[in-house]
């Protein structure tokens, strides 16, 4: 609750003027048209389809009938505007009958509800998969989903690739030139990491084939028992993987031409392997291969731990326990009961692991069977007695080493679809990238997808489900299942798979360094600059070295299941942004978007982008978050530390489109009172060196705005635009540099005009765009106007005040701005004093609140002083003002100062007399100077053009060029005598100054200024900042110079003063 006190200012003289209680607000924005739309708290109609806000504080009724003939002597400075800026006492008196439920509020809420019901809430389209067919652990579903999104990505990539030349960099180049260096660098680096980890994954696959199927004897580490086999295998893969990586790096370092030659050999091996699989599947119809697996009940047994699939064997004529019996029983005596319960109650059977294409096994493999870690592989169609077996025999069964799910299997299977960027990564080596990338990529995806689909169907139709789920081949004695299915020999598949993975690893090691080199050459990430250098032929030597080190990290991880999700995230992120780049460019319809590839659409790109995003979280949500976090950090680093690049990217175009849309929305009407904030136009003065003369103006603006809203910094250069263009550019740069120093976020505009005041008028009228226009003008005080005989400074100042009033803009004039605090200072205590004399929309209450949001003013307290006249009810003012501030949610101390009407003091009379004498003296001096100059000019240039101006014009006034024939003057003796008499009468004119009697209206205004200044200095001499209503200039322009004197008297003795004039509308409201 605000604190308030009443401080009387004692005066014994009675009042000579009546108080104007109940003066009503007349909105001068639209004289004759009623109130201005958009002011206040409730909404009604003005009959023209516009909304008009009513307010309990600013009444729109006509006040002409209630106007008195006399005004308060203590408010004479504000008397010409009391009809539109009422006294505070008049405002507060209306609060007594004001209720919280205003007329029209209910209708307004109903109207807003109706509008909201007509708006359609955007629906989030959910991408889902139809589980119509699920073959071999849903691999067909994975194939279809991967085919769709890889094809959509390829379409988007083809459109971007054919929209101009694609040099080295591939996907990075396309994304960076379409979405900007920040997105391009972040996604490009992630794609580089993904490609590098892909090389590690392919090498690990090659080593696994080498150690398991080619030369198992080459293993260095051997398991100590059956449970330690995986650890020994991983160690072997680390050693051999490092050796293989080193050899591949040497091949790539020697030259890419050798990689291209080996690629043909590797491709031939892959094609032969695929053909052999189809041949073996066809052969299995007539003659399935012999490929037995041993089952205990319906459980699959690890075949490498026994020799005969049976509980007993016949040796000679005797039946003896088999090795399998010994594994499950503690005694070799077959009659003993010390055996595993499950082993005793279930039979041992041997089934064919590859029954063939005509066996109908596809019916069992049609439905998925996801397994938990440690779950034993079972064939549901075999009979089994469900009894609990011993945990000691668990190692004799084939079990799942990890928990499987659709999301995990998608993440593991996804790297098979990551090759779609292989061509684009080597775009710099292609003869015609625009032609090769679309055709090659789409044909490759189509071919591989057909191979994947048909292979999955063939595997599901030929091979038992337990064999397909046996990850390490334990049930088939480590034999390669696909090799057994193929024809003519399993070695075709083994050798083909080995060379396929080696070739893929070489391709990744070739493309990744070139991608890093392209990023480094763009110089968007400073610390990567060294990797842009290479050999004389352009080979990325340093980038290859870094790629090898990162790939070694992936090899040290050794587990393919751990590498695959990391790989998937980086690739999916790259594909996502390729689709986004195509969609943005298509929707923006930029003139430069003219791809030769025509078979694209923004909806397809968005669908591909959505599928990529969904797959990221489906595969591994935590890896997705980590990948996005890495990309986000790279993005921010490039944004703050990277070099600025202007590539005409789509994000800039998107920003322009969004800005245009927002500006058009803002054109719908003025902002509501709740959304009003000062949008500043700061008028700066430049010195002779085109530097900002008062930088603290910008400091004050930054403290008031705190980075919010609109700030336009404007200045005027006097002269001709054609001649001053260079000065304009230098001035703008100087202002922008100062704005950066003072942390002012906004725009700069410098205009050239023949007259400064016309330039300022142009800024006030034309700054901003659409709904983003300034509503408040900040300008400096004309220091030294008293000491100068030239009236141009204060005339420009007063003209600007009149312009802001005519434009219905608020005005702030910080006086003694050099004493204002910098952004590095902190006020630990003190007050911000508000002297609320007349109500002009609530600016005086809002500005301290905004200033206190800044760290400089945060600890200052707010005090509000208001003035009560003789016939004002101070008690009622206290209650109303306390209620008003409480409803405004403002914390402030309130002090009501009673100013009794008094006779005009001798000091006031003398001060007024001195003011008018000074004004008259300056006029006489300017007259004498003008006459003397005119006489000299006439004598010198009698037959030339005469430039004549007003006696009271400043240097900004336009000179009047008059034709010679209309201004030819003959210098006669009579005119010479007249000029001499004028000079002789000059002393008499100065003597008349002594007998001047001051004008009574000036005396009353001076009385107001003196009285208010005494009260303000007495109460606020120690305040950090004083905010004060700024009186308006006189309607009669002949009193402009006296107006400046009144303002000086009003603010004398105060260190920091902010003079404030409202813009004619309410800017603060009691509603939430």
Automatic annotation (TrEMBL):
A single Gene Ontology CC term: plasma membrane
Domain Amino acid permease/ SLC12A, residue spans: 149-281, 403-681
Record's bilayer topology term: Multi-pass membrane protein
Catalytic reaction annotation: K(+)(in) + chloride(in) = K(+)(out) + chloride(out)
Segments forming domain SLC12A transporter C-terminal: 695-813, 826-901, 960-1072
Domain of life from the UniProt record: Eukaryota
Pfam family, one: AA_permease
Recorded family membership: Belongs to the SLC12A transporter family. K/Cl co-transporter subfamily.
Full protein name: Solute carrier family 12 member 4
